[in-house]
Amino acid sequence: MWVAMKSIRVSTAWIVVGLVLVFPLRAGERPLREGPAVRAYRLAAPSVVSISSEKRLSGPNWSGGIVEPQRVNGMGTGVVIDHRGYILTNAHVVDSVERLRVRLLSGTEYPARVVRVDPGHDLAIIKIDTPEPLRPIKLGTSSDLMVGEPVVAIGNAFGYSHTVSTGIISQLHRTVRLNERLTYFDLIQTDASINPGNSGGPLLNMYGEVIGINVAIRAEAQNIGFALPIDQVKQVAARLISAETLAGVSHGLTYVDLSMQAGEDGPRRGVKIMTVPTGGSDLLPGDVVIRVGDIPVNHSIDFERAWLDVVPGTSVPIVVLRDGGEHTVYYEPRVSPAELIWQVLGLRLSQLEPEEVQRYRPELRGGMLVAAVRRESPASRAGIRTGDILVGLHRWETLRYKDILSILKQPEISGRSRFRALVLRAGRTLELWLRDVPAHHLALH
Question: What span, in angstroms and rounded, lies between the C-alpha atoms of 76 and 199?
Fold first, then answer.
C-alpha cells in the first residue's frame, strides 16, 4: 500500500533493542565525529520546521448514519524558503485543515496560514509571522544525482521534531501511483528512514542542500521512501510564491533557472533572462541575474520572492553577470494583468480550458472563470457573479488577461459610458452592462 505521509497520529509500539556502550571522549577527537551528515544537519536544521494541524473528519457509523465529526491531529514538515516566513511543504499536509501551527528548531511555535496550494504536484506554501527574519534553506539540484549517493532526511517523524535519518539514493526516476487522483513521477527513491510526519521535509546531500522534498513511503516495506526532485519542486514553488500571484506585481520577464544545470564546478546560480518587455529597461536578454534588491538570487524561487514587497513602478536595482563582469541595472515592475483587472473592473479571473466553455457553447473558443467580484465595483453593479464565465466584452472575446486589457484600451471603449459584458451562467448566455469603468489605471500597464 502506498502512503502519502498525511500523518494522522497513531500509537507506536516500543521495542527495547539493546544496550548502548558509552566510551569517554578523548581530547581532540570531536572533529573525527563531525562527519558529513552532522555538517549537513547543522546547515539545514534551522530552516526546517515541524507542522501540526487539526481537522474534522466524519464518516458512516455501524448503522449507516453519519457520526459526529471528530477532531483529528496531523503532522508534517516544511522548509523555509523566504526570510519573511514563507514555508514550503506538501499539499496533503495542509489539506482541509482548520488549525495549523509551525514549530521552529528553537521550540517556538507560531500559528500558520495556507497561502497557495498545488494539489496536482502535492506542494503548498504556508506562512508564519515572526519577530525576527528566518533563514531560508539552501537548495541544490537534482540534475546530477547518483545512485548510491549518501543523503540525510530531516522531519517531524511521528511527531518527533527534527528527527534525522541517513541513507543513500536507492534509485532515480521512480513512478508511484498513490490513488486514482494522484500519481507522482520522476521520484527519488531512498533507504533513509522516512516516516509519517516526514512529509514536506528535506532530503539533503552532504553539502546540506535540499535535493528532494520527502513525500511518500511504501507502508508494508522497510527503507523504501520517496522524494520529489528539487528541480521539479523549484518550478512549481516559484509559481506559487510569485509576486504576480501574491502581491499583484508583474516583472513580465521570462528566464531559465541556471541552478537546475550542474556545471563542472558544481551547481550554477542565478537565472538567465530570455525576454524583456519593451519599455526602456537596462536589463537585457542573456543577462544572468544574481541579486534583486537586497535578495541574492540562486534559483527561480529567490528570483520570484524578491519582488514580493516591491511597489509597482519602483526602480529596483538588479545585479547581473554580463560580458564576464558584474553590473548593476535598474528595472521597474508593473501592476500584474490580474491585479489591474481587479482594480479596473473588480473581477478576479482564472483562465479556463476551451473545452470547459465549449460544453455549454460549442461555437466559443474559451473564456475566463469569475473567481471573485469586488463589492461596489463596475462588475458588481453590472450583476456579474462568482462562478460566471466571462466570454466577451463589447464585441471582442475574452480568452486571456491580455485580451481584456487590450479591449479596455480601445478608444471606442474608453469613450463609452457603458459597454456590454457577455457571461455564461448555468449554461445560459447573459448580456450585462458595465458602467463607470475607471480608465486612469490603464496607464500603469
Answer: 5
Q: Which residues are catalytic?
A: 92, 122, 199
In total, the chain counts a number of residues equal to 445
Q: What is the pLDDT of residue 183?
A: 87
| CA dihedral (21, 27, 32, 37) positive or negative | positive
CA dihedral 372, 374, 376, 381 (to 10 degrees): -30
At residue 20, the pLDDT reads 45
- 325 CB-near residues (< 8 Å, 6+ apart): none
Report the C-alpha gap between 299 and 259 in whole angstroms.
5
Q: Is the pLDDT of residue 187 over 80?
A: yes
Identical fold for domains 242-335 and 341-444, yes or no, is yes
> How many other CB atoms are there within 10 angstroms of residue 71's CB atom?
10
- Write the class of the CATH domain 242-335: mainly beta
Phi, psi of 398 (to 5 degrees): -120, 90
Range with top average pLDDT, 53-57, 218-222, 348-352: 348-352
Contact 202, 210 (CB under 8 A): yes
Per CATH, is 341-444 categorized as 3.40.309.10?
no
List strand residue ranges (DSSP E) for 205-281, in order.
210-218, 225-229, 249-250, 254-257, 262-263, 266-267, 271-275
Query: Considering just the CA atoms, what is the radius of gyration of the chain in Å?
Result: 25
* Statement: residue 443 has pLDDT above 50: no
Over residues 421-435, the pLDDT tens digits come to 999 998 899 999 998
If one counts every other C-beta atom within 10 angstroms of the C-beta of residue 201, the result is 34
CA angle (142 as vertex; 140, 145 as ends), nearest 5:
110
Q: Which overall architecture, per CATH, does domain 150-228 show?
A: Beta Barrel (2.40)
All structural domains of the chain with their residue ranges: 150-228, 242-335, 341-444
Does residue 276 contact residue 287 with C-beta atoms inside 8 Å? no
Provide the whole-model pTM: 0.80
